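note to self — DONT lose this again. spent like an hour looking for the file last time. sequence + predicted structure for the chain T wanted, 161 res
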Amino acid sequence: MRLIKSHYRWVIVAAGGLLGCLAIGAMFSLPVFLRPISRDTGWSITGVSSAMTFGFLAMAFGSILWGSLSDRFGPRVIVVMGSGVLAASLALASRATSLIEFQLVFGLLVGGATAAIFAPMMACVTGWFDTHRSLAVSLVSAGMGMAPIIMSPLAARLITH
């Protein structure tokens, strides 16, 4: 049983890195879309990019809320909810008809949903490890850190095709 738990904890690390990469990548893909969004909607680049600022603020404050809820209900429930909210809010942001709507949906909902993945995954991973905890957290963080390198070029490719 201990051997299975020992291997499964690395699956949690891999899942945390992957989910973090996708969530943070959703935030960091906005700069790739700045000019096309601005061109197609007539919104200023400054206005569109401010949605990312709102997103980071929502991540900061949302992490507190989601972390508390994760302690109460467990990280699995919160991360699944956050993943669903992230997908729905990205779809809603793509349908925004005004700049303020885009800023609120992308900023508050995408940022808040990203926090629902980031904070609980980091806390979850630390709970699975007595040894190699720093390595595990570093690997999850590295997955999140790889988001701009992986997701931004993917987003750019989606625009061109």
